[in-house]
Specification:
This protein has 267 residues and is mainly α. It folds into 2 domains: 58 residues, no CATH class; 188 residues, no CATH class. It is built from 9 helices and no strands. It starts with a helix and ends with a helix.
């Protein structure tokens, strides 16, 4: 999905633009979705068979090369697959065998996809962020006091969280744009932050934005200092927001409680 979804969206946008301009496509568009066509080597075009497409295992058995042309396969594929497996195992370990774990797994997989897509294309597709938002609101209907925090939360906290998450970054966006004439973030960031509010309530939003801003600032400074990155080149904010949201899902109440305890604000 990480590779195919941006291609699907690009084709959809191009088709819509051509339709608005009254241009007929030169030839019928090739069917392309999450299932069709079958995965193929980007170098020689050879179809990848089912036994060659097993996450991580196939990469190791093939020695990181295409079975047909022996071209090098990017190690990013097994890294993303292994990282997703580790995060999924951590979710199950954290929440146990419960429907809450299933919800948290979908939440985690969505964040992994959004992170890599944003790094590659600087977009957070609505087709992922909006269902994530609605699922968080719907999950709040299943809330009861015995569930392990922080997700899902009660409907009141979820609705307030979704509204607060979206509007807070929307206001920051316009304040920055009015002050500098530049866009500091995209609308996908607002929707993702709203989804976090829907899943974990407005109470977790300060922690998430602080963690993401800190991580973004540190990594941005390191990129400028160590790699000489032009500070005018935009850095996607979605990956930092996703990482902070996942940390809050896993340990948000403990982090907030520890901070309040150290600062004496819990007395």
């Amino acid at each position: 999905m990480i590779h195919r979804l941006p291609v699907m969206l690009d084709r959809q946008w191009r088709a819509q633009a051509e339709e608005m301009l009254g241009k007929a496509p030169e030839k019928p568009a090739e069917r392309y979705n999450l299932v069709v066509p079958r995965s193929a080597c980007p170098h020689c075009g050879a179809e990848i068979k089912a036994h060659q497409n097993i996450p991580v295992v196939s990469y190791l058995l093939l020695g990181g090369k295409c079975a047909n042309c022996k071209a090098r396969i990017s190690p990013r594929y097994p890294i993303v697959e292994l990282g997703t497996a580790v995060l999924s195992a951590a979710v199950v370990w954290r929440f146990g065998w419960h429907w809450q774990s299933i919800a948290a797994l979908f939440f985690t997989w969505a964040l992994v996809a959004l992170t890599v897509i944003d790094l590659d294309h600087q977009i957070l597709p609505d087709i992922i962020t909006l269902p994530l938002l609605w699922l968080g609101l719907l999950a709040s209907l299943c809330w009861h006091a015995d569930l392990m925090p922080p997700a899902p939360v009660d409907p009141r906290s979820a609705i307030l969280g979704a509204a607060t998450g979206y509007l807070s970054l929307w206001l920051v966006y316009w304040a920055f744009k009015i002050a500098t004439g530049k866009e500091g973030m995209g609308y996908g960031d607002f929707k993702l932050f709203a989804a976090f509010g829907a899943w974990m309530g407005w109470q977790m939003l300060p922690l998430i934005i602080l963690l993401s801003a800190f991580a973004g600032a540190v990594i941005g400074i390191l990129l400028i200092v160590l790699r000489g990155r032009d500070r005018n080149i935009p850095i996607p904010f979605g990956p930092y927001l996703a990482a902070a949201g996942w940390i809050a899902l896993m340990w948000g109440p403990q982090i907030v409680g520890g901070y309040l305890s150290l600062s004496g604000l819990d007395r």
